[in-house]
Structures are given as structure tokens and as C-alpha cells.
Amino acid sequence: MTAPDALADVRRRIDAIDRRMVALIAERQACVVRAGSLKADAAAVRAPARVEQVIARVRALAVEQGASPDVVEATYRALIGAFISLELDVHRGAAAETGAAGSGAAVVEAENPELLLQRALSSAERGDAAVATSELIRLLDTASDLSLRLRAAVVLGELLIASGRSAEAELVLATAASGAEAAEDLDDVDAAELERVRDLLDHVRR
């Protein structure tokens, strides 16, 4: 078999594997959607301790199967980050249907994410990290604007790192980076914020 023929054969095998992988991802997504509708709040959706359990388990499985644990971990962190975003959307939809979307004030704040970000920044400047963290989590749960989400992720990541909650910081930052990297035509400001997110992510993973 010539080299081009051998390469074509390998690529056909990869394509077949990809089809099976996508089918399994679809099956996993169905479970995630169901789980998202059952969880009590956004914190339960993010579940950083559960994320780390999954990562530890798949790294061990990678060793058993002869795969690179680092490649498997990176793949799963990206996969989990994307599914968390999906699960949060499902959870918010379920909460809205059951009347659990929150008070009128919360709705107003959800419609004014810039105001919520400013409040969070003010809380952080006053040294009230707990309030700032709560407000930033709410912002990430409700805001769709990429710029706001990146800015919020940077501040929240810094607060979580400073309070020793590195696993949670990593999850927040990885989710933000994944969302931004999937976007098209980032402007200079968003690109700069994405670099800050990546820098913090590198720091927390060292």
C-alpha cells in the first residue's frame, strides 16, 4: 500500500471513530439535559467537585486504555465546559417554567447586566468578596453579552483564586474561554479579555 493510500485508510478510520464519538456525545447530552432540569441551582450545575471527580476518573481510564491522560483531560474539560453552558440554559428554562426565575428585582438586574457587573466590582473594591462572587455568578448565569461575560469571568476568577477556590476558578475560566473561542470575529477588547482569562487559567493550572 502506498503512503497516500495508507493515509486515506487512516483518515477513513478516524472518520468512523468520529461518527461513533458524536453519537456518544449526543447520548451524553441527553443525560445532561435531564440533569439540568433536576438540579436546584446554578451552583449545583457547575458542581466543581463533581467535575474534578470526572477528570480524575477519565485520566485513570486513559492510562488503562493507553491514551494520553493530558489529552483526555483537555478534551473532557472542553466537553464539560460546553455541557455546563448547555445545562445552565436548560436549568434556567426549567426554573422559569416553574416560576422560580426570581423576584422582580432579579429580573430587572438580569435585564441590566452592566449594572450588575458594576455592583459586583464595587463590592469587590469594598473587600466584600462574598457579595461580589454571588453577583458575578448571577451575571454569568444571565448575561449573553460576550464582553460582559469575559470581564465577569476575569474578576470572578481572581476572587476565587484569592480565596483558595482554585478548582472553581478553573471551571469558570475554562467555560468563559471555551465560549469566547467559539465566537467569531472577536474585537480587540474581547480578544484582550480572552487573553486575561487564558493567563489566569494558565496560572491556576500550574
Word description of this protein:
- It holds the Pfam family CM_2.
- GO terms for molecular function: chorismate mutase activity.
- Residues 1-91 form the Chorismate mutase domain.
- The chain has helices at residues 3-38, 42-46, 48-65, 69-97, 104-111, 113-125, 129-142, 146-162, 166-182, 188-205.
- With 206 residues, it is mainly alpha-helical.
- It folds into 2 domains: 3-97, Chorismate mutase (Chorismate Mutase Domain, subunit A, Up-down Bundle); 104-205, Tetratricopeptide repeat domain (Serine Threonine Protein Phosphatase 5, Tetratricopeptide repeat, Alpha Horseshoe), CATH 1.25.40.
- The radius of gyration is 19 Å and the shape is elongated.
- It starts with a helix and ends with a helix.
Short description:
The protein has 206 residues and is mainly alpha-helical. Helix content is 85%, strand content 0%. The N and C termini lie far apart (45 Å).
Write the layout of secondary structure elements.
Elements: H1 3-38, H2 42-46, H3 48-65, H4 69-97, H5 104-111, H6 113-125, H7 129-142, H8 146-162, H9 166-182, H10 188-205
